[in-house]
């Protein structure tokens, strides 16, 4: 039994890494409501950007950004250019970028 106690930190780190990977790839969702674009992890808001703070949105990417994506496919990325903040570019990856951009356009955001 004492041998297995030394393995607890290793097992704990594997469990933590597994939960983190699951949260990023399957638990992260992106929603647009009346005032915010929200990044949710398992239903909890992890990050929100006010619609009034978004200068424009496009299906694009940039190098220096705030990054909330769950894919490596560049065709699924949406770039939100903010008016304020240290990192003005906010990168997300909704399941259907064209529909997400249409929803932003309906809310008054300029889509490029």
Q: Would you kindly provide a written description of the structure presented here, covering whatever features stand out?
A:
The chain has 112 residues and is an alpha+beta fold. 29% of the residues lie in helices and 31% in strands. The chain is built from three helices and seven strands; from the N terminus they run ααβββββββα. The protein has helices at residues 2-5, 8-25, 97-106; strands at 28-32, 36-41, 44-50, 54-58, 66-68, 78-82, 89-92. The strands form two sheets. A four-stranded mixed beta sheet has the order 4-6-7-5. A three-stranded antiparallel beta sheet has the order 1-2-3. Strand 6 (78-82) and strand 7 form a beta hairpin. The longest helix has 18 residues, at 8-25. 13% of the residues are buried.
């Amino acid at each position: 039994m004492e041998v297995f106690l030394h393995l607890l930190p290793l097992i704990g780190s594997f469990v933590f890494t597994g939960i983190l990977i699951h949260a990023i790839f399957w638990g992260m969702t992106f929603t647009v409501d009346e005032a915010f674009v929200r990044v949710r992890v398992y239903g909890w808001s992890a990050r929100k950007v006010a619609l009034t703070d978004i200068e424009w949105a496009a299906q694009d990417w940039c190098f220096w950004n705030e990054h909330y994506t769950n894919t490596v496919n560049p065709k699924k990325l949406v770039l939100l250019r903010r008016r304020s903040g240290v990192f003005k570019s906010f990168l997300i990856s909704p399941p259907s970028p064209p529909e997400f951009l249409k929803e932003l356009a309906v809310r008054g955001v300029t889509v490029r």
